[in-house]
């Protein structure tokens, strides 16, 4: 299907649907999933970022992006802050090389691999 036909279908859906209704998001998802045409470069980039994760395809990535868009900005900012904080502060245990937020993880301490 050509891009022009896809745009016409999206316009018809937009005109026949109250865009503030809960169903508007469902119609948008159907349109995007059918034609993978994005209304925003930002949405497309976010979908590509999520789709780069293992086990996440484009459909699931789009659902995640649309879910984040529908959340309060504060919730989305907390989500992104948590991921940014995890990536910046994650360490590997100096004893067992387990993923940790400390130089020596609690597992190494508990199981006596090191005396603290």
Give an overview in words.
64% of the residues lie in helices and 3% in strands. It has 116 residues and is mainly alpha-helical. The chain has one domain: Helicase, Ruva Protein, domain 3 (Orthogonal Bundle). A two-stranded antiparallel ribbon has the order 1-2. The radius of gyration is 22 Å and the shape is elongated.
The low-confidence runs, each spanning 5 or more residues with pLDDT under 50, are none
What is the alpha-carbon Rg in Å?
22 Å
**What oligomerization state is this entry in?**
single chain
Strand arrangement across the biggest beta sheet: 1-2
DSSP E strands, number: 2
Strand content: under 5%
Please name the CATH topology. Answer: Helicase, Ruva Protein, domain 3
| Portion of residues within helices | 55-70%
Q: Averaging pLDDT over every residue, what do you get?
A: 80
CATH 2nd-level architecture = Orthogonal Bundle
What shape does the CA trace take? elongated
Element-by-element helix/strand order? HHHHHEEH
């Amino acid at each position: 299907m050509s891009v022009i036909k896809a745009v016409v279908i999206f316009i018809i859906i937009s005109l026949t649907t109250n865009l503030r209704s809960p169903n508007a998001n469902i119609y948008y998802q159907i349109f995007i999933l059918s034609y993978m045409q994005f209304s925003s470069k930002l949405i497309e980039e976010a979908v590509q970022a999520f789709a780069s994760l293992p086990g996440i395809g484009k459909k699931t990535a789009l659902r995640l992006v649309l879910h984040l868009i529908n959340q309060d900005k504060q919730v989305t900012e907390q989500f992104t802050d948590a991921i940014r904080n995890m990536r910046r502060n994650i360490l590997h245990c100096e004893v067992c090389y387990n993923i940790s937020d400390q130089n020596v993880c609690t597992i190494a301490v508990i199981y006596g691999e090191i005396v603290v």
